[in-house]
Amino acid sequence: MNRDPVFKVAVIMGSDSDFPTMKPCLEKLSAFGIDYEVRVMSAHRTPAAAAAFAAGAAENGFGVIIAAAGKAAHLAGVLAAHTVLPVIGVPIKSSTLDGLDALLSTVQMPAGIPVATVAIDGAANAAILAAQMLALGSRALAERLAAFKEEMAADVARRDRELQLKITQNQNEN
Ligand code: RP5
C-alpha cells in the first residue's frame, strides 16, 4: 500500500503491560498505511522523558499522539501539555476499578488542554480517529477511510440478512 500520509503517529503507553490492549490500534494504523512509533513512557515514572518526547514530536514528523494508560492515567494530559499536536487518550482497564479511574483521569481535562478520549480499551477507535485527523491532509487516506466505512456497512447488511434467514427458518420449523 502507498504510505502517503505525511505525518507519523506516536503511540505512547504508560507501561508495556498496556501493549496487548493496544495491539488493535497498531493493526488498524498498519491497515490504513500509516507509519507509527511505539514507546513506553510514563507521566509518573519517566515524567521528563514524556515531556521531552511531546515537546519534540511535531518537529520529529508526528501528526498525532495516541496515549494509553491505566489507573491514575495522566499520560495523555501531560503529553498534551507539551505539544500543540492533537492527543488521543485511551483509558486502559488495568486496575480494580475496571478502567473508570483511567477514563476520568484522561477525559476530565481542564479548559485549554484538550485530550480526545476514546472508550476504555478503545484502541481501534484511537487509530481510526488518528487516521481521520491525518486524512485532512491526504486524499488517499480519506479514500481508505471511506472504503473502511463501506466494508463495515456491507458487513452489517450481511449479518442482518443472515439473521433474517435464521428467524424465517425457526418460524418454519415451529
Ligand atoms: C499505568 O499503570 C500503566 O499505563 C498501566 O496501565 C498501569 C500498570 O502499570 P504496570 O505496573 O503494569 O507497569 O501507569
Structural key phrases:
single chain; 174 residues; 49% helix; binds 5-O-phosphono-beta-D-ribofuranose
Number of helices: 6
Radius of gyration of CA atoms, rounded to a whole number: 19 Å
Strand order of the largest sheet: 2-1-3-4-5
The succession of helices and strands, N to C, reads: EHEHEHEHEHH
Low-confidence stretches: none
Bound molecules: 5-O-phosphono-beta-D-ribofuranose
Largest sheet: 5 strands, parallel
Quick check: average pLDDT? Answer: 96
Summarize the structure.
By secondary structure, the chain is an alpha/beta fold.
Question: Which helices and strands appear, and what pairs or packs with what?
Answer:
Elements lengths: L7 E6 L5 H13 L4 E5 L6 H11 L4 E9 L4 H7 L5 E6 L7 H8 L8 E2 L5 H12 L4 H35 L1
Parallel strand pairs: 1-2, 1-3, 3-4, 4-5
Could you walk me through the main structural features you see in this protein, from its secondary elements to its overall organization?
- There is one protein chain.
- The protein has 174 residues and is of the alpha/beta class.
- 49% of the residues lie in helices and 16% in strands.
- A 5-stranded parallel β-sheet has the order 2-1-3-4-5, with helices on both faces.
- It binds 5-O-phosphono-beta-D-ribofuranose.
- Residues 14-15, 17-18, 42, 69-71, 92, 94 line the site of 5-O-phosphono-beta-D-ribofuranose.
